[in-house]
């Protein structure tokens, strides 16, 4: 399906574009030079692109000294985070060994896991880090409290890091750079101080959000209340299970929610398929989606970060998307952002074409007619006497390895040695199959001087090469820089 739109007629080969009234239009000249600069960028890059920015930043940043001793290591550890991330699961597991699990507490722990997890995925991530939708105040407070119960820092701190992750993905400025290894991106970055200070990202919009300011200001009391007190007290008050609440709903639930989020930085950059772009490490996988409340379609997410969805297919697991959609139905959320299907499909098609190109590169193709020797009629006649050569559509084919395999029998082929078999091959005797056309093209050995009929591409190009995956550098230069139609302004 093509989209019809007025054609922009512009001759980019000329430095100046002239208006039809004969006056020079400086705006058009500027546009023309901009278009050529854009083209130059895409072809070789002289501008400061992201890599240059990162390289410049790294050059001007003094790295922390390498850790050379155990004593030196102690000064390089985030102790609060190390204690939290080791003590919570340790005490939780030992406690679980001595504490029977009541079904009410188990169910509550799972529900509280989803609540605090959604605080991160629907709140910290899609609402505040990426502004994927607008939330009403009750929803904002609900998510801010849930997120603080996941004990992963304040919204402001978390979002700044996450925006830097998107801005500097897979570079030394990425706070949880997947290129530094699975475990570093999973948990190492939270425990060991980075050798290079991570890049920054703008969060000035969050400073204007009163819920973000409130949560940042009261972060520690809120963390203590939502992370530990509430999940302990509810089982105690309603079914008299104080210890079970503390062990299962507070400590073990927190361990699960921690590693669930950490998997977005590690597993989602390691496991699965690059369905929309393979420039960087983010991947799509259902397992990651299952353990991260729907954040597993991370390749899509890095391409379309402001889309409120991570999974775009109805059958893919993305409860965070479903939650946001339900909130919209309840008038608690609005302005849910989605990228247009057209743009999404471009990425998908590009990756499909890349895979097809790889397949194409592993197939042996016939020689291009431009690379074949040009042979005179006399020479063709002479050489046909020595080996079975047949002329079809101006191309000379050596059928010595095939003549005995010909499904129609060898005599019929032999009848055309040294002759022009074009009509016979194209239906005069038999309307050959596409496979036969493809095979014939493999037998090309020469081109008859003056023998190739003009405009016979559909006969010369075998069916297997009519839809060809070509890189833009392989296309004709004329199609790369100017419209085929002459400009009406000339
Ligand atoms: Zn990521
Ligand atoms: Zn993100």
From TrEMBL:
<keyword id="KW-0443">Lipid metabolism</keyword>
<feature type="domain" description="Cytochrome b5 heme-binding">
    <location>
        <begin position="378"/>
        <end position="449"/>
    </location>
</feature>
<feature type="transmembrane region" description="Helical">
    <location>
        <begin position="78"/>
        <end position="98"/>
    </location>
</feature>
<keyword id="KW-0349">Heme</keyword>
<protein>
    <recommendedName>
        <fullName>Acyl-CoA desaturase</fullName>
        <ecNumber>1.14.19.1</ecNumber>
    </recommendedName>
</protein>
<feature type="transmembrane region" description="Helical">
    <location>
        <begin position="110"/>
        <end position="127"/>
    </location>
</feature>
<keyword id="KW-0444">Lipid biosynthesis</keyword>
<keyword id="KW-0249">Electron transport</keyword>
<dbReference type="GO" id="GO:0004768">
    <property type="term" value="F:stearoyl-CoA 9-desaturase activity"/>
</dbReference>
<keyword id="KW-0813">Transport</keyword>
<dbReference type="InterPro" id="IPR001199">
    <property type="entry name" value="Cyt_B5-like_heme/steroid-bd"/>
</dbReference>
<dbReference type="GO" id="GO:0020037">
    <property type="term" value="F:heme binding"/>
</dbReference>
<dbReference type="Pfam" id="PF00173">
    <property type="entry name" value="Cyt-b5"/>
</dbReference>
<keyword id="KW-0275">Fatty acid biosynthesis</keyword>
<keyword id="KW-0276">Fatty acid metabolism</keyword>
<keyword id="KW-0479">Metal-binding</keyword>
<keyword id="KW-0560">Oxidoreductase</keyword>
<dbReference type="Pfam" id="PF00487">
    <property type="entry name" value="FA_desaturase"/>
</dbReference>
<keyword id="KW-0408">Iron</keyword>
<comment type="similarity">
    <text>Belongs to the fatty acid desaturase type 1 family.</text>
</comment>
<dbReference type="GO" id="GO:0005506">
    <property type="term" value="F:iron ion binding"/>
</dbReference>
<dbReference type="InterPro" id="IPR005804">
    <property type="entry name" value="FA_desaturase_dom"/>
</dbReference>
<dbReference type="InterPro" id="IPR015876">
    <property type="entry name" value="Acyl-CoA_DS"/>
</dbReference>
<dbReference type="GO" id="GO:0006636">
    <property type="term" value="P:unsaturated fatty acid biosynthetic process"/>
</dbReference>
<keyword id="KW-0472">Membrane</keyword>
<feature type="transmembrane region" description="Helical">
    <location>
        <begin position="139"/>
        <end position="158"/>
    </location>
</feature>
<dbReference type="InterPro" id="IPR009160">
    <property type="entry name" value="Acyl-CoA_deSatase_haem/ster-bd"/>
</dbReference>
<keyword id="KW-0812">Transmembrane</keyword>
<comment type="function">
    <text>Stearoyl-CoA desaturase that utilizes O(2) and electrons from reduced cytochrome b5 to introduce the first double bond into saturated fatty acyl-CoA substrates.</text>
</comment>
<feature type="region of interest" description="Disordered">
    <location>
        <begin position="1"/>
        <end position="29"/>
    </location>
</feature>
<dbReference type="InterPro" id="IPR036400">
    <property type="entry name" value="Cyt_B5-like_heme/steroid_sf"/>
</dbReference>
<dbReference type="InterPro" id="IPR001522">
    <property type="entry name" value="FADS-1_CS"/>
</dbReference>
<feature type="transmembrane region" description="Helical">
    <location>
        <begin position="218"/>
        <end position="239"/>
    </location>
</feature>
<dbReference type="GO" id="GO:0005789">
    <property type="term" value="C:endoplasmic reticulum membrane"/>
</dbReference>
<dbReference type="InterPro" id="IPR018506">
    <property type="entry name" value="Cyt_B5_heme-BS"/>
</dbReference>
<keyword id="KW-1133">Transmembrane helix</keyword>
